[in-house]
Amino acid sequence: MTTGESGADERGPSGPPVVIGAGPALQAALGGTAAEAGAGRIPFNKPYLTGRELYNIARAVSFENIAGDGYFTQECSRFLETRFDVGRALMVTSCTAALEMAVMLCDLQPGDEIIVPSFTFVSTASAVIRAGGTPVFADIRPETLNIDVDHVEQLITDRTRALLPIHYAGVGCEMDRVMALADAYDLVVIEDAAQGVNAAYRGQALGSIAQLGCYSFHETKNFVCGEGGALAVNDPALIERAEILRDKGTNRRQFWRGEVDKYTWVDLGSSFAPSEISCAFLLAQFEAMDSMQDRRDQLWTAYLDRLKPLEADGAVTLPTVPADCRSNSHIFYVLMPDGRSRDGLIADLAEQNIHATFHYVPLHSSPMGRQLTPDPVELPVTDDIAARLVRLPMYYELSEDGVDRVCSAVTAFCAARR
Questions:
Q1: Integer distance in angstroms from the first to the last C-alpha of the chain?
Q2: pTM of the model
Q3: Given this model, what pLDDT does residue 256 score?
């Protein structure tokens, strides 16, 4: 496609797309200004634009349907269904919305429980509470930071209705063991694959393995539209009701397909559908998925190679990707020896204009978590990991020089502590 047809040039390997007629403010929004690039700041995250997002948005406006479920929403759904072999992909406003829909499909009753890791984002647990259930917090494995299936089995009671593991950092948890456990106890499994788009476990795409999977396209993820998500419905028996929940509890989609002669309110749902604008933006990201993934893999490997000497010296612990997992290189983290060194490293990097961050405050130790479980919850691995983890900058336009600069700063900090 030519520049005249699309309104945008292809993005080069190191520069932003050039939109014909774009003023400084728009061009800055598309890829950053030269002054910003030369300032020496390495942000934690920077959303990448392929150069086709605004073109797609203009097309969506020209189609005179920006409310949702138009051409771009349908194309995004088809992409996920085909690429990841999911039964039905329903585009939604966020991964939080996907999680809430997934838990609603479990038909929880008062006293019902869903087992979740404590080391996760709040949406994993709040979706359970909003549906009238109780989250039960499980510990994680120190190698992958994913849910500890052995601990999960200890937590199962006659009130357990579902398991809700996350795939931390785009590395799949032990889904064969999770699914076997669910089969043994007749439980639903919901994959929180917010971080797992385009990653796989034993050849299956994350989000496609369990009855339900939840994706995120938040601007901090690999493929973005600002705010957005999708619910993968892999159990055919759940598709019709999932469509109804998504569309405010109405059977409007059946009406559109000619399956009913009018649509009406039939269930308790909400307004979970995204706008066409969001999906138009997202489709441009999907179309560039392979090249974007390759770049993240290169950066992740560069971090690993440059920091291996520190791990060999015992100064840090680096991420582990099991042989049966294909990671999407969503996060690169280091585990420091203790909480004090973790805080010191983040502060030291900030002084050098490098933005790194910690990750979750464990849910069981949060104010809300303590309200839910007034009795002390012992999750030693979760508490230990949460106190020591540092997430390093990771985004498409991070250069190899940028990785070198981050790694040099980490190495210098560790050397100074000896």
A1: 56
A2: 0.89
A3: 76
